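Annex B. Sample input.
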Amino acid sequence: MVTHAALPLGRLVAPPGALAALDATGESPAGFLARHQGGDYGEVSDEDRKLNEAAVRAGERVLSAYRLRDGTAVWVLTEADRSSTTIMLSSEY
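Annex B, continued. Sample output.
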């Protein structure tokens, strides 16, 4: 995990599919957003983890991947300009 100031998330966005999936499992997006913001990128490869760490420092896009309790894959994506962060199903990308 990279040591850095908290990643600015900007405006928070979630498409209907992600909201429905989170609701179905009773999970809140807050936990996934906190992990993403704190440098815990979830189920990404070591190479993608290193790319994310460099992206935080360079002001590039940061992508995390997590699983809901039922196994549904969700992604958290912060835009390079830090204007927004989207939590979405991998199928909604």
